[in-house]
Task: structure prediction
Amino acid sequence: MTNPLISAAGITIAYPNGLTALKDFTLDVAQGEFVGIVGPSGCGKTTFLDAVAGLMPVAGGRLTYKGKPISGINTGEVGYLFQKDSLMPWRTAAQNVYAALELRKVPQAEWRQRAQDILQKVGLGRFTDKYPAQLSGGMRRRVQLAVLLAFDPPVILMDEPFGALDAQTRTIIEDDFLRLWEQNRKTVLFVTHDLEEAICLCDKVVILTAHPGTRKQVLEVPLQRPRTIDEAKFDPEFPQTLKTLSTSLRAEVGRTLAL
Ligand SMILES: Nc1ncnc2c1ncn2[C@@H]1O[C@H](COP(=O)(O)OP(=O)(O)OP(=O)(O)O)[C@@H](O)[C@H]1O
Ligand SMILES: [Mg+2]
Result:
């Protein structure tokens, strides 16, 4: 790939206790590409997103953003929907969104309306003034998504963003997210355990091996865009794509369980 936005070339990432979480991992991501990352639990998916966000240093290889090594947190460019709940518990849903608007230097007079609009978009229009503790897990997840949308960064890192949602809400939020993405084609790195979701949303899906994770395969998703979740699931290419992905991943999950 010429001029990838994000490029990992043979990177190794280790934790201070000496554990190697990712080994000799290579991946190029073009600007505007929607890339899925799947792999068995503990293979290093979150660790990779942390490295792209500048939260984890690489111990070997080269990890670059716009051709320059990533060193330190890339605040303006990268938005990260963490696997863990990252809402500020002492702030309401709207006030959590304000934090992102403030970072983007939106005039304070506009915060209320902007937060209301964004929370409405994720189906939480009636919950703007609730605190995280007063919301369900799925609702908290949607507030986190609202914060990310308010921040509106060029690169979006999402770590199992929709896993906590019920199936129906999930499809609606995924469709909304796809529609938003079509409007501005941000670069997205999307970690999920749900292979159907990966196929429906992504341009390509990277499969990682069992721990320590390395790249096993990159699968191009052969579906048309724009698409909705239902259109993707009923596409004639969908079953074979799912089968390929599932077979490849199952072998790695099997290895993880045998470790
Ligand atoms: N802070 C830490 N210190 C030491 N080891 C860690 C730390 N965080 C994660 N690890 C280890 O690094 C490896 C990769 O972890 P990581 O969280 O990246 O996996 P993952 O692919 O995101 O898994 P999951 O699908 O369960 O979220 C695992 O073996 C894990 O035990
Ligand atoms: Mg993880």
User: Anything to note?
Assistant: Residues 84-152 form one domain. Helices lie at 45-52, 93-103, 108-121, 137-151, 167-184, 195-201, 229-233, 238-258. The first helix runs from residue 45 to 52.
